[in-house]
What does this fold into?
Amino acid sequence: MSLKLGVAAKASAVVATVVAIAVIPRLVELFALMQLTLFAAMAMLALSLAFIWGFGGILSFGQTAFFGLGAYTYSIAAINFQDSTPAIALAVLVPLAFAAVLGYFIFFGRISDVYLGVITLTVTLILFNCVNSTAGEEYRIGQALLGGFNGIPAVPTFNVPFLPAQVLTPEQSWWTTAGSVLAVFLLLRLLLSLPAGRVIVAVRENEVRAGLLGYDPRAVKLLTFVLGGAIAGFAGALYVNWGAFVGPTIFSLSLSAEIIIWITVGGLGTLLGPVVGCVLIEYIDAYIGSQQAMNSNLVLGIVLLVFVLLLPKGIVPALRDLLVRLVPVPKPKSEDAGEPLRSSALFPVGAE
It folds into this structure.
């Protein structure tokens, strides 16, 4: 009974999310819709790190490297092709290839976790400085001027696939961005429920034991890292579609740190938590910016301290634990009586 209840609850949540995505353009003004589109694009970026850190155990301080590569690749390809369809594909493939090369040297070189963070952070700084130094007419790829610190303005936004003349409206851009976030979320949930996903978590928990079982932890980590890079690149394309602009600040260290704050606030080891944390922090940041009453970085620091001290698990795990206490779920007879209730069929660990 509890299994059927859990499946019904998850299906209802997905249906409710689809309905919400569909009707939101009718309920909010255009400015608010554009803000929500930005939040959804950044939520995709949060998902990329949430997957490789929360489930793969890979803390990358340079996730913005793949995010920025995806954004720049989309911008250059969209200007040259005048069609967003191949540009989106390249925005995923280029960061994927870059993550594969970088990850190969990191994981097969047996770089420790501490140096992994340093290397990814350094790569982000290198990309920032390289792109920032591309001012001048000679720095162009096809018809696209890189623009140096000024970035690339007037980037063509998404169009109907293979129909460049039919550019998406703000409402259609929202449906595309939010729908993409939901699709990636569900695909990651599906992956984590399959044996391959269990292997990813097993490597995170104990690499030696996973190796003794016949799995290569280096290859598993590499594939996890590559998938996270591809998702971040896709997020970069969604971000450029929102603003029709990209600049070197997309590689900034402040954004790299902000992604970690999103995940810490929302809940590490979940997929829903980082999305919630991203939307919450981005909303607070936008609200403070509009009021101009205080420094947004100061407020974000205070928010991080509060959550670390009062809700160390994050918002979603804390709510999950509260629901488990309030709504006891009967265990199947086959379960061990000593198994924690939070791993029941209705509230599987890390399934948020």
Remarks:
- The two ends are 20 Å apart (CA to CA).
- The mean pLDDT is 88.
- Strands lie at 140-141, 144-145, 159-160, 163-167.
